[in-house]
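Appendix C: a fully annotated inverse folding record. The material below is reproduced so that readers can follow the format used throughout the book. The structure is listed first as tokens, followed by the designed sequence.
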């Protein structure tokens, strides 16, 4: 598999440190607000990457932090603590805010079919780790105490700006209103590892440390949490492109200073989601969330498809018009899958055709995760000269990576059609359930029996037998009458 590596600025063949295993780290959310769909674009693309590693046979361990302390409103260590700001706004404690927005984040992820990482670690649960790593950085001369805070000394590294060659003077410290120059820093790029001199007397979360009571900086948490669960060699680190500097740059600086060797081999950065008026942010324009899209009648998976239709290294422009196009494409795709015959089995003569399609799908994703090309392979599958059963098998396999719930949605569409058709026929056909049948089971079996009725009307005896046999396998017997059917256990 070839992936673009932000460190080398080119596509490279992905080779994990340990053959067959992928150690993957993702910067998690700062849980002071709902995630906007621009942030979620990164998590969708990272989810596809993880699922493709698994599809390709790797044993993946993925770790994510939850930033519940220490992230200031400017990424450059200044401004107000985001968590504290959220708590003040909503008259809650910082921990209540953290829990509420952590849950909201994972609710959004579930709606978008984003798998929860194997390990999810809130930063406040790892304070001892942070102190241990910062202490070693102090011992080794990579960190210094000034004005009560502990800073990382970026001048101790042969090369600090690993992703781009910035000019130190171009870092516009003090230019923007919310960014203040910090007199304690020896170099402009130095960053805080541990704060004790908080400007905010009421900083809610504080811990004892060798440097005084305080709290950790934002960057140190990702390095420590990654090393804690994934060891000294990380294969791939993911995040939004806006995290490359300063956050990821600082992660690399402190991790490699601590370890004394290269830390992470590949950096996967997802580019921005823009609106027509520019970069999406919480401060300007409509605040776009998954819930808002749902309120407007969109299936969250339409947004997932919308993201997959574009490459992760290109900026993507969000508009409702673009989302409507994705919604149409999604519906059309599901309808075409619903029209396939779900009965039957793949045959020997399907094999060659299936292998070609699998190769095509893998080739698309092997080329720097070209998801839009991988999505078009679904249309190739629908057109291919293989049996319907083979098509459904392939679509199911590919969807373990794409995560569009294609088979389930197609099945639901088929049922809805059968139910609607039967309803249109009037009430001459009655389905009788046992009086003590639980409502949910009765509804499910009712839908299946309507489908069987439709199949019989269409003289599709194979399908009608398939449904009868499937019910018999559950221990359900059918008693047909002239104008209906009764079922029992
Ligand atoms: Zn991070």
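Designed amino acids, in order:
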């Amino acid at each position: 598999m070839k992936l673009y590596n932000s460190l080398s600025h080119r596509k490279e063949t992905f080779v994990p440190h340990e053959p067959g295993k992928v150690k993957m780290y993702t910067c998690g959310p700062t849980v002071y607000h709902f995630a906007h769909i621009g942030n979620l674009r990164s998590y969708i693309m990272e989810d596809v990457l993880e699922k493709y590693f698994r599809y390709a046979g790797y044993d993946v361990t993925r770790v994510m932090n939850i930033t519940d302390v220490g992230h200031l409103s400017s990424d450059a260590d200044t401004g107000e603590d985001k968590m504290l700001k959220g708590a003040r706004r909503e008259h809650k404690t910082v921990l209540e805010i953290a829990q509420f927005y952590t849950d909201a984040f994972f609710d959004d992820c579930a709606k978008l079919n984003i798998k929860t990482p194997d390990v999810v670690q809130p930063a406040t649960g790892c304070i001892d780790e942070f102190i241990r790593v910062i202490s070693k950085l102090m011992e080794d001369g990579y960190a210094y105490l000034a004005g009560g805070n502990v800073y990382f000394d970026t001048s101790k590294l042969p090369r600090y700006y690993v992703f781009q060659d910035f000019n130190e003077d171009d870092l516009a410290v003090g230019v923007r209103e919310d960014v203040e120059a910090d007199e304690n820093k020896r170099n402009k790029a130095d960053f805080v590892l541990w704060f004790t001199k908080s400007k905010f007397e009421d900083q809610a979360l504080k811990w004892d440390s060798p440097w005084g009571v305080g709290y950790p900086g934002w960057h140190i948490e990702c390095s420590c949490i990654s090393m804690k669960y994934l060891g000294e060699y990380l294969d791939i680190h993911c995040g939004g492109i806006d995290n490359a500097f300063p956050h990821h740059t600082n992660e690399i600086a402190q991790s490699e200073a601590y370890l004394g060797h290269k830390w992470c081999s590949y950096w996967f950065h997802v580019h921005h989601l823009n609106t027509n008026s520019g970069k999406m942010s919480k401060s300007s324009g409509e605040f776009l969330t998954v819930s808002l899209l749902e309120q407007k009648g969109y299936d969250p998976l339409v947004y997932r498809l919308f993201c997959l239709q574009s490459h992760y290294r290109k900026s993507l422009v969000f508009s409702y018009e673009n989302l409507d196009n994705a919604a149409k494409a999604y519906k059309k795709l599901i309808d075409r899958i619903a029209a396939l015959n779900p009965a039957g089995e793949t045959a020997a003569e399907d094999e060659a055709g299936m292998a070609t399609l699998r190769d095509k799908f893998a080739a698309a994703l092997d080329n720097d995760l070209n998801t839009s090309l991988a999505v078009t392979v679904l249309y190739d599958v629908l057109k291919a000269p293989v049996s319907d059963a083979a098509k459904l098998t392939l679509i199911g396999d590919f969807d373990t990576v794409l995560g569009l719930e294609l088979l389930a949605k197609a099945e639901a569409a088929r049922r809805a059609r059968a139910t609607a058709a039967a309803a249109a026929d009037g009430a001459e056909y009655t389905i009788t359930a046992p009086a003590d049948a639980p409502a949910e089971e009765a509804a499910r079996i009712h839908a299946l029996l309507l489908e069987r009725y439709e199949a019989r009307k269409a003289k599709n005896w194979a399908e009608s037998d398939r449904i009868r046999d499937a019910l018999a396998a559950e221990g359900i017997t059918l008693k047909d009458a002239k104008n209906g059917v009764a079922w029992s256990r």
